[in-house]
Amino acid sequence: MIITVDGPAAAGKGTLSQKLADKYGLAYFDTGMVYRAVGLMMVKNSFDLADASVAENMATQLTFAKMMELSKDKDFRSSLGGNAASIVSSYSGVRSRLLDMQRNFAKNPTFANGTPAQGVIYDGRDTGTVICPQADVKFFITASSEVRAKRRYDEFVQKGMNVQYEDVLKDVIARDERDANRKDAPMKPAKDAVILDTSDMGIDEVFQKSVAIIEEMLK
Ligand code: DC
User: Fold this and answer.
1) Which of 28-32, 176-180, 201-205 has the lowest average pLDDT?
2) What is the pLDDT of residue 170?
3) Pocket-testing residue among 15, 17, 31, ligand 1, by greatest number of atoms within 8 A of Cβ
4) I need a labelling partner for 206 at 20 to 30 A (CA). Which of 46, 53, 115, 217 fits?
5) Ligand 1: distance of its center to the CA of 190 in Å?
6) Residues near ligand 1 with C-beta < 6 Å?
7) 143 and 16 in contact (C-beta within 8 Å)?
8) pLDDT single digits (tens) 134-147
9) From the alpha carbon of 83, which atom of ligand 1 is closest?
10) Whose CA is nearest to atom 16 of ligand 1?
11) DSSP string computed for the chain
12) pLDDT tens profile 7-41
């Protein structure tokens, strides 16, 4: 089984995907990681994020193992990493270099410990439209920018990071703008995606709703 969960930053895709992966025994691929890895390679090497050809070159050098290594860096999940990811993800050369790594995962999905899985759950922006249009079930998870900024702000504070809510909100809005308006694979729901607005829902409710939809579709 293949499930895709797309939507804007901080909509709760990661938490939902993890819970669905656990319930259905699926491997989980957070596709934002490929762009975060390339963005971080640019930042760590002091390369200019505006230079698309250097970013493309970094994307060519990225392997799954290197991505996992980079994910341990403190900036991988920070605003710095998120913004760098959003910028490099707007380059079509970068996107095309990272396609195979993402698509191939569904051919041979494995858990983090290397055990084979029955299927995969993808989380990202274009997983239902570009990476895996043949997915069995597709979700597009969204929420108001204020609610998403508050969720991200709480996450940062919990990790002990010193951030202001207004700055997180500005970041969320800027990333939405870039993700939705880039030329190549802009973020949008697949035609056959189920759209869930989670502004007024807790994670348990989102999870129960998603499970009901999956069960219905699998009938
Ligand atoms: O989901 P995330 O916050 O980790 O994603 C970081 C950036 O990567 C996001 O701003 C846009 C980009 N991205 C993308 O373009 N396509 C995906 N499938 C996943 C992420």
Assistant:
1) 176-180
2) 95
3) 31
4) 115
5) 16
6) 9, 31-32, 35-36, 82, 85-86, 89, 124-127, 175, 179
7) no
8) 999 999 999 999 99
9) 10
10) 125
11) -EEEEE-STTSSHHHHHHHHHHHHT-EEEETHHHHHHHHHHHHHTT--TT-HHHHHHHHHH--HHHHHHHTTSTTSSSHHHHHHHHHHTT-HHHHHHTHHHHHHHHHS-B-TTS-B-S-EEEEESSIIIII-TT-SEEEEEE--HHHHHHHHHHHHHHTT----HHHHHHHHHHHHHHHHH-SSS-S---TTPEEEE-TT--HHHHHHHHHHHHHHHH-
12) 998 999 999 999 999 999 999 999 999 999 999 99
List the structure tokens of 60. Answer: 């060519």
